[in-house]
Amino acid sequence: MSVLRTIVLALLLSSAAGATTIILTGLHSSLGMQSSLYFDQDGVATQEYWAGGIDVLVNGYSRLVFCVDLFTNISLSTYGTELDFSDTPQLKRVGWLLQNELPTITTQAGGAALQLAIWDIVTDNGDGFDAGKGRITQSSNSSHPTDPTVLATAISLESMSLGKSSNYGIVYHNVSLSSGAVVQTLMGISLNDGGPEPVPEPAPIILVMGGVVLIGAGKCRRFRSTQT
């Protein structure tokens, strides 16, 4: 029974560890931009939207994250959320970009391009903003053309990430919101701030717990054998 209680307690602790708090503190102005970023959403021209990094505090540690939801306005507020390591091919592809390309991006246009690439990969499998197929296309409003440099860089990032995958990307799914906050899904990287790793992936947890159980069972058998 003691082994069973240990297993149950460990599972409860591991599931509780997935819950965390994110405080959005501001836009990462050096890796993003808003002007000259007009896009069509399902064929409808949008207004200018911020595209780029967002600064957050995850349980007190600074992190840089990017939006996953398409054109969702967000508030600088506190979010109750769950951590989830990227679990689809698209999010694993985004994880690769965050792990390998984000460290090389140093300009506002580069940060904006990364955000646009993330949106297109997640929502339309990264088709290069192909007009007529994707949810995101270059704006049809000729008076508001999208910055061609940003668009070209976003397409290049998509091409580089094709067929790539990384397990280090973390998705923050909202489960509860403070007053005035808007539902949003954000994505970051587990290696970008020097803080503690958020939560190990489920598979390693299961392997570790399996080892603990086997060790405990072996000790129990040895103890009983000495008593007979």
Question: What do you see in this structure?
Answer:
The protein is of the alpha+beta class and 228 residues long. The protein folds into two domains: 1-18 and 199-228; 22-195, no CATH class. Helices cover 37% and strands 26% of the residues. It has five helices and nine strands, in the order αββββββααβαββα. A six-stranded antiparallel barrel has the order 1-4-5-9-8-6. Strands 3-2-7 form a three-stranded antiparallel beta sheet. A hairpin with a 2-residue loop joins strand 4 and strand 5. It is globular and about 45 Å long. The two termini are 21 Å apart. The relative contact order is 0.20.
Summarize the helices and strands and which ones pair or pack.
Elements: H1 2-17, E1 19-33, E2 39-41, E3 44-45, E4 51-58, E5 61-67, E6 78-85, H2 89-100, H3 108-124, E7 136-138, H4 148-161, E8 169-177, E9 186-189, H5 202-226
What would the average pLDDT be, to the nearest integer? 75
The fraction of residues in strands falls at: 25-35%
SSE run: HEEEEEEHHEHEEH
- Domains counted in the coordinates: how many? 2
Oligomeric description of these chains: single chain
Count helical runs: 5
Proportion of residues in helical segments: 25-40%
DSSP E strands, number: 9
Descriptive tags:
2 domains, alpha+beta, 6-stranded antiparallel β-barrel, 5 helices, globular, 228 residues, 37% helix
Précis, in short:
This protein has 228 residues and is an alpha+beta fold. The chain contains five helices and nine strands. A hairpin with a 2-residue loop joins strand 2 (39-41) and strand 3.
